[in-house]
Amino acid sequence: MIFLKTLFIVVEVLSCLLLIGLILLQKSKSEGLGLAFGAGAGESLFGARAGNVLSKATVVIGIAFMANTLLLGVLFAQKDKTLMEQVPSVQPTAVQTQPLDAMDFSTQMEGTPDVEEAPIVLDIPAEVQKEM
Questions:
Q1: Residues 39-94: pLDDT tens digits?
Q2: Would you call 70 helix, strand, or coil by DSSP?
Q3: N or C end of the chain, less CB within 10 A?
Q4: How far apart are CA 112 and CA 99, in angstroms?
Q5: Cα 65–Cα 24–Cα 55 angle in degrees, nearest 5
Q6: Residues with Cβ within 8 Å of residue 80, at least 6 apart in sequence
Q7: CA separation (Å) from 118 to 48, 63, 85, 115, 123?
Q8: Is the pLDDT higher at 103 or at 50?
Q9: Are 8 and 40 in contact (CB under 8 A)?
């Protein structure tokens, strides 16, 4: 499926660039950008009926562009698996079931010092201690 999407995107870009080139090569009534590419050179390169050939090619590539755009829209609108759907879901851990008021916080946890046992060390410079 990824190969098919990539192929259609490449066709879309190529048809877009071809359309731009064909439209710029065509003669306009006021000779707009056609003169930038040399209007006389275009006639000698494509023949006297170059406008007719370029117009038909523009229509054909324009139809191909629109059909390709429609196909790309349908392909990308389909529901594919996302990366997050492939990740296994993790069950949440145990949740506290009783309110905080009902819990007993009076017991001391093992390995933690009492408040009286923990010394408070302040790193105060000697000059500041003299002022105190």
A1: 555 555 555 555 688 889 999 999 999 999 999 998 888 766 666 776 777 777 76
A2: helix
A3: C
A4: 24
A5: 60
A6: 1
A7: 101, 82, 50, 6, 16
A8: 103
A9: no
Domain ranges of the chain: 23-80
- What is the Cα–Cα distance from 71 to 12, expressed in whole angstroms? 10
Q: How far is CA 44 from CA 13, 36, 50, 100, in A?
A: 29, 15, 9, 91
Spatial distance between the Cα atoms of 49 and 43, rounded to a whole number of angstroms: 8
Average pLDDT of the chain is 75
The residue length of the chain stands at: 132
* pLDDT interval class at 96 (50, 70, 90): low
Residue with tokens 């038909």: 56
Rounded Cα gap, residues 39 and 32, in angstroms: 10
Run of H or E residues at 5? helix 2-25
- pLDDT, residue 61, reads 95
